[in-house]
Amino acid sequence: MAGRTLLQNARVLTCSGDTGERPRDGDVLIEGDRIAEVAAHRIDVDPASTRVVDLHGATVLPGLGDAHVHISWPLDFVFDHAAIAKTPPGRHMLDVAAVARTFLESGYTSIIGAGVTQPLDDLLAKDAIDRGLIPGPRIVPSGPMVAEQGGLGADGGLMDVVADARELREVVARQCDTGVRALKLFISGDGVVPQFPSDDVYMNDEMLAAAVEEADRHGAFITVHARGSASVAMAARTGVRIVHHACFLDDDALKALEARRDDIWVCPGLHYLYAMVSGHAEPWGMTPEKIEASGYHEEFRSQVEGLHRLRESGIRILAGGDFGHQWTRHGTYAAELQRYVELGGMTPVEAIHTATRNLGPAAGSDTGQVRPGYLADLLIVDGDPAADVTVLQRPDLRRAVIKDGKFGYVNPEVHP
Ligand SMILES: [Zn+2]
Predict the structure, then answer these.
(1) Where would I find the Amidohydrolase-related domain in this sequence (predicted)?
(2) Among residues 172, 202, 352, 372, which one has the fewest Cβ atoms lying within 10 Å of its Cβ?
């Protein structure tokens, strides 16, 4: 018989309800890797065959997820992509393993790759995690990012570079054959690199449609770096699944997104821009002059405004955002949710949904809700994140993380 665990005396935030949901007293029964029962009453079990864990009123919510992850960036990462690419693979993978563990210990049970620095980073980490060799989240693996010849990223030697739809299709097929399931394409510039402004558009409809079709054949999907309106609109009309950044949204872009409301997600990465324009990166060389030149101030204002428009249009928003810089350190992932509340006008539960019930279907897994039949990926915290979302950033309040029905992390200071 599959292992059974009863989480007793909990406060359950299911993330199955509306954004007004509050944690309620209840029990959660886990059988094997799935949630078997969620009850507002005491669930009776035979303690001889079921492990009973009394949570003493701690909150149980779905494990969190991040949809824009670079697991390749070590804990001490400072923009040194070339150095990371050259690190001996064995040593580098230990850095990657440390990042994977950090995600899990931070309450993150699901991540979607947004491009790697050494080609197999996501795949090797996923394999080691799935085999139980190292602790880490569920991973939708990405491969090297894909750039268009002459476009942003094409010259660094770290990306796959393509010239046309045929080449792009080949790259997508090749990455998928290695096991990649979230392909990351660069279809716009980025203000931080002045010669490639955010308004620039790379690739075209034909290329993206070919990439989407090829990925689909392999059970994979396309994600894009798209900052300007025109690139966002192109992504939406060609079948891209996840649009990263979407800093600028004109009416065309918004209309194109609305037309695909049921199968597209937007992952802004708001905390990253917030940290940049707030000067948090200054100790690492991002001077006020550089930030000014990047246009990030305008981009940040525009992104906040766009976030409100996306919400009003009912387009699903994801949490996730390039964590791993020293000014947005690994382990601080839930800061994104705080920004959504403070700047995006979301309720705490709505912000939590961006990391749970919105993210499960984007990742293609039965995760993100505390609901019978769903995978038992759960986070147990003290306090009420539905009242104060910053609770999720506090390591001292984090009691335990369950993944696949097993305790993947137990805070040594606070036993569950
Ligand atoms: Zn990124």
Answers:
(1) 59-406
(2) 372
Facing residues of 317 across strands?
A: 266
Domain end among 333, 357, 384: 333
Q: Are residues 12 and 102 in the same domain?
A: no
Q: Which residue has the tokens 């935030």?
A: 13
Based on the domain organization, do 54 and 69 belong to the same domain? no
Same structural domain for residues 305 and 161? yes
For residue range 364-398, what is the model confidence (pLDDT) as tens digits? 999 999 999 999 999 999 999 999 999 999 999 99
Is the CB of residue 136 less than 8 Å from the CB of residue 97?
A: yes
Instruction: Compute and round to an integer the Cα radius of gyration of the chain.
Output: 21
CATH number, domain with residue 252? 3.20.20.140
What is residue 416's predicted lDDT score, i.e. its pLDDT? 55
Give residue 225 CA to ligand 1 midpoint distance, Å: 8
Nearest Cα to 273, choosing from 310, 250, 299?
Answer: 299
Residues 113 and 255 in one domain: yes
Cβ-Cβ contacts under 8 Å for 136 (sequence gap 6 or more): 97, 100, 101, 103, 104, 125, 128, 129
DSSP bridge partners of 26? 10
Cα separation, 112 vs 347, whole angstroms = 24
Nearest to 171 by CA among 208, 127, 226: 208
Residue 91 tokens, joined: 């040593």
Output the CA 113–ligand 1 centroid distance in Å: 9
The Cβ of residue 361 has, within 10 Å, a number of other Cβ atoms equal to 15
- Distance CA(104)–CA(99), nearest Å, equals 9
Q: Please give the single-letter amino acid code of residue 186.
A: F
Residue bearing tokens 């923009």: 79
Distance 224 CA to ligand 1 centre (A): 10
CA of 68 to the centre of ligand 1 (A): 6
> And the tokens for 416?
């569950």
| Distant-in-sequence, close-in-space partners of 48: CB < 8 Å, separation ≥ 6 | none
Looking at 333, 355, 386, the residue that finishes a domain is 333
Helix (H) or strand (E) holding 245: strand 242-245
The CATH number for 18's domain is: 2.30.40.10
Residue 351 placed within a domain: no
Q: Which helix (H) or strand (E) holds 26?
A: strand 24-31
- Count structural domains, the chain: 2
CA of 67 to the centre of ligand 1 (A): 10
